[in-house]
Each structure stands twice: as structure tokens, then as C-alpha cells.
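Is flavin mononucleotide placement plausible here? Inputs below.
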Amino acid sequence: MKCVNDFRLRFGKQELVPIIIGGMGVDISTAELALEAARLGGIGHISDAMIQTVTDRRFKTHFVKEKLKLYKYNVANPDKSDVLFDLGRLAEATQMHVGRAMEAKRGDGLIFINCMEKLTMNAPRQTLRVRLSAALDAGIDGITLSAGLHLGSFALIEDHPRFRDAKLGIIVSSLRALQVFLRKNAKLNRLPDYVVVEGPLAGGHLGFSMDWAKYDLRTIMAEIQQYLQAEKLDIPLIPAGGIFTGSDAVSFLENGAAAVQVATRFTVTHESGLPEKVMQEYFKASEDDIEVNTISPTGYPMRMLKNSPAIGSGIRPNCEAFGYLLDGSGNCAYVTAYNREVAAHPAAKKISVKDKTCLCTHMRNFDCWTCGHYTYRLKDTTSRLADGSYQVLSAEHVFRDYQFSTDQKIALPLP
Ligand SMILES: Cc1cc2nc3c(=O)[nH]c(=O)nc-3n(C[C@H](O)[C@H](O)[C@H](O)COP(=O)(O)O)c2cc1C
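Reply from A.M.:
I modeled the complex. C-alpha cells:
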């Protein structure tokens, strides 16, 4: 019986363990987690979501405080169009976050960065160009573009000296999205080095509508494989979403996947950025405790635990400090929803906003408990401690379990 370790992900002459830990925004996929994946011969992602906040937390810098100081005059103003990112400071934070991770890298694996295009930051093209270029400058091994159609994104960095040497990949959830991307990028003469095919059971934002349950990862993979074969395009495909055991991964690898991307099982490891209290919520969750809802201002459905503090919260938008979801005209769906509720309840001290959430603030504070569909199985991957809590795992344990397990088995950790 085969295990994941019988396969290799090949990039040119380089061979890797075909396990990729997916990006998990606002520092759930920490540098520590990505470094473990790289040390063990696979690929780990850091995320560039809210990178200034993350850098402040990691390196005691003051990017957020300085931005807030600059725009403090605007805090009570419902119009956020003035609030812009300083591109130089954005590059600095990115270079620090990426550069330090790359300096610490050991082993034969790689570290990639996950860039969510839906973080439009009140100047979508300019800020994305800086984020991508600064990550390349700082030596990132690869960039995975997520949450968006990525249509003009490769072109933003085509003049960068590392444009053809760094690995560049995209996440798609349908054949159609891939076809549109390939058509729009044909003139760049540069195919993606890999395509992550993310199905409807993934965590974070979904590339589906609320009818996500009608879709299935294996079917989408098969459609894309057939298309690439017919077009004679050789692009490694990496399925993601609901691959919970080593055996699940093997069944994809046997069917032509180049590697698998996984995330949920790593949310409950010491290296994950989630606070331990939140990890216990993930462990405890039952299937009924998880929902896909539309409260993310990005417009994409998002999967999360129903008891996330972010749901129904009516906090004041924090765009002067954060502002990652402001579109190019200073709008965010949460700001609109918040202003509507304030106008409807002028005397209220505290309001609740039900249809949208302030994703920046709540993701930053680990109060939006986004998770994969199989989060309810995490309790089966560990042991219960005497006090009733669940034992947090090590990333190495989970990685090796994916790498070597067979027969749908999941190895429990040593006590
Ligand atoms: C907690 C969590 C946060 C995530 N955040 C992001 C993100 O910021 N960007 C992204 O592209 N994917 C994100 N994802 C998706 C993962 O990178 C990955 O593709 C997917 O969850 C894999 O499926 P699995 O969790 O069932 O293993 C997130 C997943 C989880 C569980």
C-alpha cells in the first residue's frame, strides 16, 4: 500500500515531499509553521494578509500605530476614501516578514507566500504590485495568488528580475477560472508553475457561491486534467480542500496530482498562530457548529465556526489602522453595513451588524474562526488530556502523519 512519501513533487531538478501547507490568513500559517514544512522537505506558506500588523507583532515595529496616527482625524468619518497605505512602508513590512523567514529556512523544502488579491487596500493594483515585488526582493521561493481571478497580476511583476525564476502559482476553483487566466496571460509567455485546485471543503474564503455543496474537488480536478492534456499543457496540479488523511492524499497523487495542499489539520499545532483557547474551539467543534456564510466583506462565502465572536459584532470599522478591504474608492461592505445600522439606531450605545463583519479587526484578533469543513474531525487526531482539553500537536507530527500513514489511519501523538 502506497503512502505520500512514495511520490515526489518535481520542479525542474528539484524534488520535494508533495505536501504543501496552505496559506492561512492573518498569521495562522506563521513563519514557524512554514519553516517546519520546509525543514521536513515540503512547502510551507506564510501569508501576506495584514502584513503590517503581523510584522508589528513579530518584530515590535509600529506600522499600524503610525498609520493610525496619520489618519486619526478620520476615525469617526463614515467616508474612508482618504485612508491609503504608504507603499514604501508596505514594502518594508513585507521585506521584513519574508526576509526573516527566508533567513531562518533550513532543509530542502520551500517557503511560499499566499497573496489574497481581495485585499484591495484602497489601491488594488499599486498595493498588490508592491506586495509581490517586495516578497520577491526578500527572496521568497514562490508566490501563490489567491482569492481573486489574478487576471492582471503576473503582468504587475513581469519586469521583476525574479519573474521567471521564482515559482508563481494561482488558486482556482473551476476549469473556467483557469481558462480565463491562461487566455489573459498568454502574451506574457509564462505559465504558472503550479495550479492549486481548491474545492468546496477548504477553509477561509471559497471560490464558489452559496451552492458550494453541489461541487466536488475530484470532479473539478478531472475536468482540469482533461483540459490540460488536450491543450498539451504541463502544469502541476495541486488539489486542496478536505484532504484529511495520508490516504486521501495518496488517492489524489495516484490520479495525477503533483502534490496536495492541506491546512485544517495544522490549525491545531503549536506552530499555528491561533491562540490555544481558539484551538480548543476547533477541537471541540461538531459538524453542526460549522457554517458557510456571507459575512466577509470580500463578497466570497467563508467557512467558520458558528460561535465566532466576529459574527454579529458591531464594532466600529478600523480602517485608519487597517483598511485592507477598502476597494479602490474607499468602500468596504462592512463600513456600509455599519453606517446603515448606526443610522437606524442613533441612540444605541452598542449595535450589532448581522450581514457583514469587520474582517480586518476580527481576523487580526483571531475572533473570526475560519476553518475547513473537516474541522469536526480534528478531535480524532489527538488525545484528550486529564482536564478535558485536547492535546495540541506538533506540526512535525501532523506532517509526518500525512507523509507516512496508510489505510486511512491517523497517528495519535505521544502523550
Ligand atoms: C484557518 C484557515 C485559514 C485560511 N486562510 C486562507 C487564506 O488566507 N488564503 C488562502 O488562499 N487560503 C486560505 N485557507 C485555505 C487553505 O490554504 C487550504 O487551501 C485549504 O484549507 C485546504 O483544505 P483543508 O483545510 O481541508 O486541508 C485557509 C484555511 C484555513 C483552515
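Short version: Residues 87-103 form the longest helix (17 residues).
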